[in-house]
Specification:
single chain; about 1050 residues; alpha+beta; Rossmann fold; Elongation Factor Tu (Ef-tu), domain 3; Alpha-Beta Plaits; 5 domains; eight-stranded antiparallel β-sheet; 34 strands; about 20% strand; globular; disordered N terminus; GTPase activity; ribosome biogenesis; Elongation factor-like 1; nucleotide-binding
C-alpha cells in the first residue's frame, strides 16, 4: 500500500485541513480575516482585515457580531494548500464545531489572554480530543495586557504561563481519563482483548505537556492589530546577536531560563545573581521589546525613535504615509504587522506542527472507522475483505484514481440558487435558473459540506450514500440505509463564494451539489457498497429549548411544512417533531439558535409570517427519598409491606405495586446511556450496535459496550452506597448485597424501554390467594446487560397441580407483556402533570385467579369481552393506575432541568446581577475574581423554565457590562411538596389556616403544564366570596 501511493505523496503531503476553535468573542473570525488577507488570493484587502469579518457573510452574523455557522476557505501559503474552517464559539452553535472538527486534521485553539480559559474552551478541547485532532494553542489579544490592564512584562509572562498550564491541565485530564478507562477495560475483559497500539500511543503522549512554546505549537498574537509570533521567530532574531544556536535559544526562551550578560551563558534560576530582580529570557528578550514599541507609539511622551530603530534593524518597508498618520494606533499597526506578520507566524506553525492528511488519517482512523470484530462466521468473506481494504485506503489516504472513493458529509448547508456559479470551468452554463435542481419548491439549493478520505471524487460520479446504521455484512436487509446518487457539481469553498472544480483528491474539503434529496444531516459517501459507515459525530449539548410553531394564516400551513423540512436539512442540530397534540415543535439549543431558526423560516425557507408559542418546558416526576435512607427503602421493598393494591374491573387480576427511589448516580447513568441501552435491549444485534454512539459520556472506542455499561452501572451503585451520610461498613455491605440481588431482577426499563426507571420482577416467595397464580416476568434486561449468566426459570415455575392452575400459568405468561405495557404507560406520563417519571423502581405483583363458579375456561373467555372489555387491556390499565397511585402516596416531587451558568461582570454590577439571579431562582455555586483583571466570574445553576430572556434581562440591568453563557447541566428535584397543607401549629402560624395558603412554586409549575395540556386544574374561581370588593381604592 505504501509504495503504491508514493507517487501521490508530494501533493497530498502539502495539504493542511485546520479549524479555528475557541470561546465566543476570543477572536476566531478576526484571525481568519488576517490569514485570508495574506494568503486568500486577493479576496480581502489587508486594510479591511479584522473589520470586515469575511467568514461571517450572513446578515444575522454581521448584525450580532458572532459566528453562527462553520464555513471553509482555501488558502495558499508558500507551496502548501490550507483548508481553513472557521467555527462559532457560542454554546448554542456547538453542533457546528462538531461538523468542523470532523473534517479537520488540526485545530487552532484560541484563548483570550485577558479572559483566560472559559467554559467553551473546555468544550472545544474535549471535541478536539474526541476527534483526535492535533491542536496548536494561540494566545490572542496580547495587546490588551499592555493597553488595558497595563501589566508589566513580568506580570504578563506569569499570566501567559498560567493560561498555558491550565490548558495543558485540561488536555492531560482527558488523557488520564482515556488511560484509566483503558486499564479498566483490560482488567474487565479477557486477556488479549485490548489492542496493544492504544496503550503505547498513550504512554508516548503523556511524557510531556501537549502545548509547549519551545516546541513551536504555541503562538502569541494580537489578531486585531495583525501581528503575532512564536518563540522560533525571536530565537532566529537573537541567534547571531547572542552567539547561540537557534535550537538552544528556542528551548531557553520559555520557562525559568535566565541570560547571564557577563558570561553570555543561559542558566537556571540558581545560576543567576540579583535575587528576585532577575527576569526570565522570555520577559527580557521577547516581552520587553514589545512593551517598549507599544509605549513608544501610544504614550504621548513616548520615544518615537524606538519605532525608527525597529524599522531600521529589521529592514521593514513601511510607507511614509502610514508613519506620518495622526492616529498613533495606525502607526503602531503599520510597524507591528510588518515586523511580526500574523499570517506568517500562524501558517508556519500550521505547516510545521499539524499533520498532513496521510499522517492524520492513519492516526484518526480508529475514531473515524473503528475496527469491527465480526463474531458471526456466516458472513461473506469477500464483502469483509473489501470493507477492510476500504478501511486501509482511508488509513493511508490513498489518492490514486483506482482507489475506492470514500468521503464523509458532516452537514448540509443551504445556498440561495442565485449565489451558485453560473459558469463552469470551461465557461459552459452549469446552473441555469430554468433547470432548477429538482427542488422547485424553494429558491435554496442544498450543498454537502464534505471531506474526501480516500480516492478521487469527480462531478457526475455515481456514489452510494450510507447512513450511520448501514452494515455491509447484512446485505439485502440494509436497503433502507443505502441509496445511490449522482453528484452534480463539486465546488471549492471560498467563504461565501464557490469555485467549480472537475475533481478533488483525498485530503481535500469540498462542497457537493446534488445530494439534497439523499442526505438529511450527515452521511458517508462511498464508491462501493462494501464499506462501513463513519462513526457518528458527538454533540456537546442536546436541543432543549422547544417551541410550537404555526402560521399566522392557516392557509400557509403547506408552506410552513415545506419550510420546516428545508430547515431540518439545513441546520445540523435543529429537531422538528409533531407533538401528541398535533403541534409542530421546533427544538433548538438555546435562545440565539432558536431566534436564527425562526428568522430563517420566515425569510428564507417558508416565507410566511409565523406564530411562535412560549417555550415548552419539559419536567420529570419523582418521589421524595434521600440516599441516606437507601437501606430502609431496600428493606421495605423486600419485606413487601408498603404497597398499593388494585383489582381489574372483572376482579380476576389483583395488582400490588411497590415503588422506591433509585440512587441519583444510577439514574444519571441510565439516562446518559439511553442510546446504547436501546441498542442492547432492542437487540439490534451484531456490529451496528457496537459501532453506534457508544461514547455518550466516555471517550473509549475499542471496548465491548455491554461490559462497559455493566461496569458503569455497578460503579454508580457503589458510589451511591459510599455517599450515604453515616458511613457504616456493615450497612454498606448489606446495601451492596441487596443491590446485587435487585440488579439480577431487572424486567424492563421505562419509558420507551430505555428510560431511567426500572421494573423489577416480583419476589417468587410472595404469595397471593390460594388459587391465584403470580405473573412472574423474566429478568430480560439483566440477561442482556450480563448481570444474569443463564436464564433463571427452572426454580420459578410453581408445581402445576391441576388443569385450572396450568391454564392460569399459561395465561400469566401471556399477560407478562401487558404488565410491561402498563409500566411503560405509567412511567411515560406521571400523576402530577403527565410528564415522564425519573429515577423510580417499581415491583409489580399481579395475581390471576380463575372465575368463581366457572369451570370451563372457554366459556369464560367468551363472556369477558362483552362485560368489561379485553382482559389484557384491563391488566394494562390497572397496572398503570396502580403505579401512578403508588407514586402519589410516596410524596411526589417535580424534577426540573438545570442550566449551568457562567457570568462575567465588573464589581460595581455584582448587585444588579445577583438581583437578576435571585428573581430567576438561581443557586450560586462559586464567585471568584479573575486574577489580574477587574472582572468577577460567577458560577450558578438556573432552572430551565427561568432561563428564557435571562441574558437580555441581565444585560439591561447591568447596562451591558455582564455576559452570560448557559449550558444544560443536570436534572434536579424541587424540594417543595406540591400538595403542601399546613398541619402543625408552627406551619399554620407561618402559612395560615390552609384556605389562604398561596400555591408554592412546584404547584404553580404543575398547574401551568396541566393548563397547557388541557388537563383539569384545581383552582379557586372565587377567591373571597364573603368580602365585597369595589373598584374604588378608598383608604
Amino acid at each position: 500500500m505504501v509504495d503504491s501511493d508514493s507517487d501521490s505523496d508530494p501533493e497530498t503531503r502539502k495539504i493542511r485541513n485546520i479549524c479555528i476553535l475557541a470561546h465566543v468573542d476570543h477572536g476566531k473570525t478576526t484571525l481568519a480575516d488576517h490569514l485570508i488577507a495574506a494568503s486568500g488570493g486577493g479576496v480581502l484587502h489587508p486594510k479591511l482585515a479584522g473589520r470586515l469579518r469575511f467568514m461571517d457573510y450572513l446578515d444575522e452574523e454581521q448584525r450580532r457580531a458572532i459566528t453562527m455557522k462553520s464555513s471553509s476557505i482555501a488558502l495558499h501559503y508558500k507551496d502548501h494548500s490550507v483548508n481553513l474552517i472557521d467555527s462559532p464559539g457560542h454554546m448554542d452553535f456547538c453542533s457546528e464545531v462538531s461538523t468542523a472538527a470532523r473534517l479537520s486534521d488540526g485545530a487552532l485553539i484560541l484563548v483570550d489572554a485577558v479572559e483566560g480559559v472559559h467554559i467553551q474552551t473546555h468544550a472545544v478541547l474535549r471535541q478536539c480530543w474526541i476527534e483526535k485532532l492535533s491542536p496548536c494553542l494561540v494566545l490572542n489579544k496580547i495587546d490588551r495586557l499592555i493597553c488595558e490592564l497595563r501589566l508589566s512584562p513580568m506580570e504578563a509572562y506569569t499570566r501567559l504561563l498560567r493560561i498555558v498550564h491550565e490548558v495543558n491541565g485540561i488536555v492531560s485530564g482527558y488523557k488520564s481519563e482515556k488511560y484509566l478507562s483503558d486499564v479498566d477495560s483490560v482488567l474487565a475483559g479477557p486477556v488479549g482483548e485490548m489492542g496493544d497500539d492504544e496503550g503505547f500511543e498513550f504512554v508516548e503522549d503523556d511524557e510531556e505537556d501537549t502545548f509547549q512554546p519551545q516546541k513551536g505549537n504555541v503562538a502569541f498574537v494580537c489578531a486585531l492589530d495583525g501581528w503575532g509570533f512564536g518563540i522560533h521567530e525571536f530565537a532566529e532574531f537573537y541567534a547571531s546577536k547572542l552567539g547561540a544556536s537557534t535550537a538552544a535559544l528556542q528551548k531557553a526562551l520559555w520557562g525559568p531560563r535566565y541570560f547571564n550578560p557577563k558570561t553570555k551563558m543561559i542558566v537556571g534560576k540558581k545560576g543567576i545573581g540579583g535575587g528576585n530582580k532577575a527576569r526570565p529570557m522570555f520577559v527580557q528578550f521577547v516581552l520587553e521589546p514589545l512593551w517598549q514599541v507599544y509605549q513608544a507609539a501610544l504614550d504621548a511622551d513616548g520615544d518615537k525613535g524606538m519605532l525608527e530603530k525597529v524599522i531600521k534593524s529589521f529592514n521593514l518597508s513601511v510607507p511614509a504615509r502610514e508613519l506620518q498618520n495622526k492616529d498613533q494606533k495606525v502607526v503602531l499597526q503599520a510597524v507591528m504587522s510588518r515586523w511580526l506578520p500574523l499570517s506568517d507566524a500562524i501558517l508556519s506553525m500550521v505547516v510545521k506542527c499539524m499533520p498532513d492528511p496521510i499522517a492524520a488519517q492513519s492516526f484518526r482512523v480508529s475514531r473515524l472507522l473503528p475496527k469491527r470484530e465480526v463474531l458471526d462466521n456466516l458472513v461473506d468473506s469477500n464483502v469483509l475483505a473489501e470493507a477492510e481494504q476500504v478501511r486501509k485506503s482511508v488509513e493511508a489516504c490513498d489518492s490514486r484514481l483506482e482507489a475506492p472513493c470514500v468521503a464523509f458529509v458532516s452537514k448540509m448547508f443551504a445556498v440561495p440558487v442565485k449565489m451558485l456559479p453560473q459558469r463552469g470551468l470551461r465557461g459552459e452554463v452549469i446552473n441555469s435558473p430554468t433547470e432548477e435542481i429538482g427542488e422547485g419548491e424553494s429558491d435554496e439549493c442544498f450543498l454537502a459540506f464534505a471531506r474526501i478520505f480516500s480516492g478521487v471524487l469527480y462531478s457526475r460520479q455515481r456514489v452510494f450514500v450510507l447512513s450511520a446504521l448501514y452494515d455491509p455484512l447484512k446485505g439485502d436487509s440494509m436497503q433502507k440505509h443505502v441509496q445511490e446518487a449522482e453528484l452534480q457539481s463539486l465546488y471549492l469553498m471560498m467563504g461565501q463564494g464557490l469555485k467549480p472544480v472537475a475533481s478533488a483528491k483525498a485530503g481535500n474539503v469540498v462542497a457537493i451539489q446534488g445530494l439534497g434529496h439523499h442526505i438529511l444531516k450527515s452521511a458517508t459517501l462511498s464508491s462501493t457498497r462494501n464499506c462501513w459507515p463513519f462513526s457518528s459525530m458527538i454533540f456537546q449539548v442536546a436541543p432543549t429549548l422547544r417551541v410550537a410553531i404555526e402560521p399566522s394564516d392557516p392557509a400557509d400551513m403547506g408552506a410552513l411544512l415545506r419550510g420546516l423540512k428545508l430547515l431540518n436539512r439545513a441546520d445540523p442540530f435543529v429537531e422538528v417533531t409533531v407533538s401528541a397534540r398535533g403541534e409542530h415543535v421546533l427544538a433548538a439549543a438555546g435562545e440565539v439558535h432558536l431566534e436564527r431558526c425562526v428568522k430563517d423560516l420566515k425569510d428564507r425557507f417558508a416565507k410566511v409570517s409565523l406564530e411562535v408559542s412560549s417555550p415548552l418546558v419539559s419536567y420529570k416526576e419523582t418521589i421524595e427519598g434521600e440516599v441516606s435512607h437507601m437501606l430502609e427503602n431496600l428493606k421495605s421493598i423486600s419485606a413487601g409491606s408498603d404497597y398499593v393494591e388494585k383489582a381489574t374491573p372483572n376482579g380476576r387480576c389483583v395488582v400490588r405495586v411497590q415503588v422506591m427511589k433509585l440512587p441519583p448516580t444510577l439514574t444519571k447513568v441510565l439516562d446518559e446511556s439511553s442510546v446504547l441501552l436501546g441498542d442492547i435491549i432492542g437487540a439490534k444485534s451484531g456490529q451496528t450496535s457496537k459501532s453506534l454512539e457508544i461514547r455518550r459520556s466516555n471517550i473509549v472506542e475499542d471496548e465491548n459496550p455491554i461490559v462497559a455499561l455493566k461496569k458503569r452501572i455497578m460503579d454508580a451503585v457503589e458510589k451511591d452506597i459510599l455517599s450515604m451520610t453515616e458511613i457504616d461498613k456493615e450497612r454498606a455491605d448489606k446495601c451492596r448485597v441487596k443491590w446485587l440481588k435487585l440488579l439480577k431482577r431487572i424486567w424492563a426499563l421505562g419509558p420507551r424501554h430505555i428510560g431511567p426507571n426500572i421494573l423489577f420482577i416480583p419476589d417468587f416467595k410472595s404469595k397471593g390467594a390460594d388459587s391465584s397464580v403470580l405473573i412472574h416476568g423474566s429478568p430480560f434486561v439483566s440477561e442482556r446487560l450480563g448481570f444474569v449468566d443463564e436464564p433463571i426459570d427452572g426454580d420459578t415455575a410453581p408445581e402445576t397441580s391441576s388443569e385450572v392452575t396450568q391454564a392460569l400459568s399459561m395465561e400469566a405468561e401471556r399477560l407478562e407483556s401487558s404488565v410491561v405495557s402498563g409500566f411503560q404507560l405509567a412511567t411515560a406520563s406521571g400523576p402530577l402533570c403527565d410528564e415522564s417519571m425519573w429515577g423510580l423502581a417499581f415491583i409489580v405483583e399481579a395475581y390471576i385467579s380463575p372465575f368463581i363458579g366457572q369451570a370451563d375456561e372457554s366459556e369464560t373467555s367468551h363472556l369477558q369481552p362483552e362485560q368489561y372489555g379485553i382482559f389484557t387491556g384491563q391488566v394494562i390499565t390497572t397496572v398503570k393506575d396502580a403505579c401512578r397511585v403508588a407514586v402519589l402516596q410516596k410524596k411526589p416531587r417535580l424534577v426540573e432541568a438545570m442550566y449551568f451558568c457562567e457570568l462575567n461582570t465588573a464589581p460595581e454590577y455584582l448587585g444588579p446581577m445577583y438581583a437578576v439571579l435571585g428573581r430567576r431562582r438561581a443557586r450560586v455555586s462559586k464567585e471568584v475574581m479573575q486574577e489580574g483583571s477587574p472582572l468577577f466570574t460567577v458560577h450558578a445553576y438556573v432552572p430551565l423554565s427561568e432561563s428564557f430572556g435571562f441574558a437580555d434581562e441581565l444585560r439591561r440591568w447591568t447596562s451591558g457590562a455582564a455576559s452570560v453563557l448557559l449550558v444544560l447541566s443536570h436534572w434536579e428535584a424541587l424540594p417543595q411538596d406540591p400538595f403542601f397543607v399546613p398541619k402543625t401549629e408552627e406551619e399554620i402560624e407561618e402559612f395560615g389556616d390552609g384556605s389562604s395558603v398561596p400555591p408554592n412554586i412546584a404547584r404553580k409549575l404543575i398547574d401551568a403544564v396541566r393548563r397547557r395540556k388541557g388537563l383539569p386544574v384545581e383552582e379557586k374561581v372565587v377567591q373571597h366570596a364573603t368580602k365585597q370588593r369595589t373598584l374604588a381604592r378608598k383608604v
